[in-house]
Amino acid sequence: MKVDKKAIYDAADKLSNWGRWGSDDQVGTLNHIGPTAIIAAAQLVRKGKVFALGLPLDEKLQSGLFGGRWNPIHTMLATGTDAIAGNQDASPNLRYADDAINLPCQCSTQWDALAHIFLDDKMYNGFDARLVDSRGAQKNGIEHTRDKMVGRGVLLDVARHRKLSALPDGYAITSDELDAVAIAQKVEIRKGDFVIVRTGQQEACLEKGEWGTYAGGDAPGLAFDTAYWVYAKNIAGICTDTWGCEVRPNETKEANQPWHWVVIPKIGISMGEIFYVKELAEDCAADGVYEFFFCAPPLNLPGGCGSPINPQAIK
Amino acid sequence: MKVDKKAIYDAADKLSNWGRWGSDDQVGTLNHIGPTAIIAAAQLVRKGKVFALGLPLDEKLQSGLFGGRWNPIHTMLATGTDAIAGNQDASPNLRYADDAINLPCQCSTQWDALAHIFLDDKMYNGFDARLVDSRGAQKNGIEHTRDKMVGRGVLLDVARHRKLSALPDGYAITSDELDAVAIAQKVEIRKGDFVIVRTGQQEACLEKGEWGTYAGGDAPGLAFDTAYWVYAKNIAGICTDTWGCEVRPNETKEANQPWHWVVIPKIGISMGEIFYVKELAEDCAADGVYEFFFCAPPLNLPGGCGSPINPQAIK
Amino acid sequence: MKVDKKAIYDAADKLSNWGRWGSDDQVGTLNHIGPTAIIAAAQLVRKGKVFALGLPLDEKLQSGLFGGRWNPIHTMLATGTDAIAGNQDASPNLRYADDAINLPCQCSTQWDALAHIFLDDKMYNGFDARLVDSRGAQKNGIEHTRDKMVGRGVLLDVARHRKLSALPDGYAITSDELDAVAIAQKVEIRKGDFVIVRTGQQEACLEKGEWGTYAGGDAPGLAFDTAYWVYAKNIAGICTDTWGCEVRPNETKEANQPWHWVVIPKIGISMGEIFYVKELAEDCAADGVYEFFFCAPPLNLPGGCGSPINPQAIK
Amino acid sequence: MKVDKKAIYDAADKLSNWGRWGSDDQVGTLNHIGPTAIIAAAQLVRKGKVFALGLPLDEKLQSGLFGGRWNPIHTMLATGTDAIAGNQDASPNLRYADDAINLPCQCSTQWDALAHIFLDDKMYNGFDARLVDSRGAQKNGIEHTRDKMVGRGVLLDVARHRKLSALPDGYAITSDELDAVAIAQKVEIRKGDFVIVRTGQQEACLEKGEWGTYAGGDAPGLAFDTAYWVYAKNIAGICTDTWGCEVRPNETKEANQPWHWVVIPKIGISMGEIFYVKELAEDCAADGVYEFFFCAPPLNLPGGCGSPINPQAIK
């Protein structure tokens, strides 16, 4: 489809979930998940195998391309070397190590909160963008999802489907391709699912030991038309192994991240980025089972526009 | 029992798991959890109800009593007010908010890594404490547990058992009392469990709207003798709603946090602190079911001596 | 004088320096200092005695009363204990310590930049307040003053003049009193001066070892009418030993910090706060010389709305 | 001269200032500056011209080559866009911007404290290196110099003397060359001086707009033999426009930064790095005057192993 400002606003009109779950709703498509879905998802734990989808926080993937983000800074407040030096032995003593972490919420494996992206002057459910100021997000903050990131997960391994280690930069994954992959993988997409799309781009960086322009440069990713797919499927969350989910260069020069303009502010979907899916994908390919129990709690950060996470896929 | 340095070293000798899972093991009692236990734990998801056990990160509980920790600092890197001001409209534009979080790993709801506490010159499994220096923990870092914090959770609601809203400061919960509570609650403690003990202290602070000396002062908590209980039960993790799990004032003046001296470095147990359990406890009291699926992934922080978390209890 | 919104806007009209030094000026009253004044100021170095006016950054004066500021966080990136442990001895080796500091620019002894305070929608020289966004100040940032904080300093020791160790909270220092103190001290206020007013409040906190509500609560300080004095005297900078220079409770309930509304945005004066002046004041009282060479360079922080400083008064 | 471990320890023996100013001295060669020198230095203010030697803190010079340092992080706590949005208008209101800065003390223009470098197990004046732990430096911290960085400054412009815009990487500046430059510049080095050596390397980076390996890679700089010069001249401080003052690659493979091993721990000299000297050097070349009043106060950071600074050279 042709992507331009008009296409963006058309999609915004057609795919709006504003008001769907009440005028004060702040979790959007996570409403698609009900108790029954959670109970059913738990039944997918059949092998007792856990996959951690959080990239190690010492990977230096932030390259300054976007928004002043930095790589996580891990500092120590107390160390074993202090302990051995006898510096903690004032009575009564305790020998210990302590540490701290300072990181942008969007710098590595993360949830974007619904407060993260605006369409013109509004965010999801029609809230005024000005409700997100230097003190944080008064509406649509990540804290509202603190007990919502639980349900059925489905991996759509587009790279493997294409028999590629990684899709090339600029490769746009369409709705049709998502459907084709699901069919090939013999997995059905259901209401309330967390769908994880694998492009292989991240694993290529890890293999090379170089992140290059991963964080903000060109990438394979979802085509703009998948906004319709995301809406129609009534999924709860959409995640990828890339920096920004959607294809880059974008399909238009009239907007930066045109798909984002629609899916977060209008559909109200929780978006997961920079997911590490190597072992999960290998396991799915090996046993042919692409569904699993998914549990990816954000930090309970009031007013947060995102959260670093270590999502768990459990088969 | 009489608690002194001798009692500490006696317990350290008797309760050592060093070498039990090989000389390079770095996850300790999390080895008690196997695939079968995970599959069984998933069966505990019967109501499809999720409880988030992470305290909101804007609670100002750090009071300077211990170790230079600070309250979480949430700052914004981009805001809706910037967007509305038109400051993000250079073409192609994207209107968005971004943020960052800076926090001690031990400042709110958290896992302690096995690198967090030393016994003399060693940490869990006999590793030299000097392996934890200003660059982080080369051994026993939290990253090793990134896919291990999944299994059966059990709440032992000691405060409710005692018919108190909160146990008083200095109240020492013994092994016998833990057993009595389990019996009263009709729940069995099994190998590989994550046991969460509720004292009510945190809820009292929340109700008062004042943290006082919660972070490092007096508190109800586990008696030293429960180190034996923890070891004998072969549990995977031990968690409380207090700052430091064990009773304060400590049962001896010869050591600060004597129970810590044993349970982390020698038993190798993952310890969860400052868990928020109000709604979970109310639900357990209401339906009489004190077991649940537990999923509490740490951030994948290489060399981390702990991690902020938002544990999920799913019934 | 009666202080209300009308008085504020009257003063704003009468005391405006907008355009006085050109439409792109970003340093305001620092323009009052010329080469001749700097040369003359250097002649005030007669004893070769240096006073550091920066409060130690480990003082915990931030109390949460205002704006999410925190106390400085000093962390280590490498330590002597690491060195002694042998952890820095990979060849070729260097044994060293490194550290980092994280602090609000306004948390301790500091300059306020002209970008710090707005009057309605504008900042100094008529620049739009929207030029200060999450990326910093595009106009009136502290970097423009990087070579301007040099000249003649004058201490007006109001507390000592009143024979008090500290003026009481709520004590409003008027223009008349400033003049009276100058006369009593036999010191003339000249164009381009940095005037430092001593209330004694800070020393009282240091003596008690308690900061209480120093940072944002009641305080002695400059009366609103001194805005006229500041303007008429053509001084370059105005500094005090208090948190916010002006008297608190403020002289009106119609505005928070009414004097700030005028002196930074309209007069364009550099304001120094939380100056530590104990020894300087004692020395001035002892030798009767209240003037000195003043050098208080801010960090060269582009877009900064302030800067931590350690001002030097040299007699 | 041949540089090896033996040469380092020989120099350490010959150039020791331990005990010279008493067993508790913590400022080393800053003791060379007395009141008379400060008074005389003030007389060098003849033109009333101020040069700010602090590099802008938004230059991204840290490249990960050394020690986990990061580029300064400037974040906003309140903004003009918030103000314009009306978000600060709760009564009584104040429209303002606030910010924060997070930076390694050694990441840009900086003083190294005497606690920054160790020789074996000791730091300056024989203090045990273990006194510098995760809580900071208990001895030789930067706070002791808070009123000491004032005196006569001298620029030795080696690059201009060599008629080069920048000395090449690996260029070792010897004692003889320092003397030759001083003679050519007609400036005498005196006891208590702050000597600033210009290589031009930094300006080359600024001109290219690329920092490359400036922070930790090859560089022109002081030869090891200048440790003798530094000691013999009784200067107070030594500064350069490079990352680490001394020539890189170092003159030996047996030590990293061999000159540092001696000059900080044994001579006890305050070392300034990453000084921005372009305009100062141009002015000195133009008027032939290479001496000036120098005032470079560190932040008053107790336990600091360094401090970001914006040194002032005043002619």
Structure description:
Four copies of one chain form a homotetramer. In chain A, the strands form four sheets. In chain A, strands 1-15-13-7-9-11-12-4-14 form a nine-stranded mixed sheet. The first copy, chain A, has a two-stranded antiparallel ribbon with strand order 2-3. The two termini of chain A are about 35 Å apart. The radius of gyration of chain A is 20 Å and the shape is globular. In chain A, helix 1 runs parallel beside helix 8 and helix 7 packs parallel to helix 8. In chain A, strand 11 (about 235-240), helix 8 and strand 12 form a beta-alpha-beta unit. In chain A, about 25% of the residues lie in helices and about 20% in strands. Chain A has nine helices and 15 strands. With about 325 residues, chain A is α/β, with parallel strands linked by helices. At the A-D interface, strand 2 of A face strand 2 of D. Strand 3 of chain C pairs antiparallel with strand 3 (about 100-105) of chain D.
Task: Please write out the topology.
Four copies of one chain form a homotetramer.
Chain A: H1 5-14, H2 35-42, E1 50-52, E2 73-78, H3 80-84, E3 98-104, E4 110-112, E5 132-133, E6 136-137, E7 150-157, H4 158-161, E8 172-173, H5 175-185, E9 194-198, H6 201-208, E10 221-222, H7 226-233, E11 237-240, H8 258-267, E12 270-273, H9 278-287, E13 291-295, E14 306-308, E15 312-314
Parallel strand pairs in A: 7-9, 8-10, 9-11, 11-12
Antiparallel strand pairs in A: 1-15, 2-3, 4-12, 4-14, 5-6, 7-13, 13-15
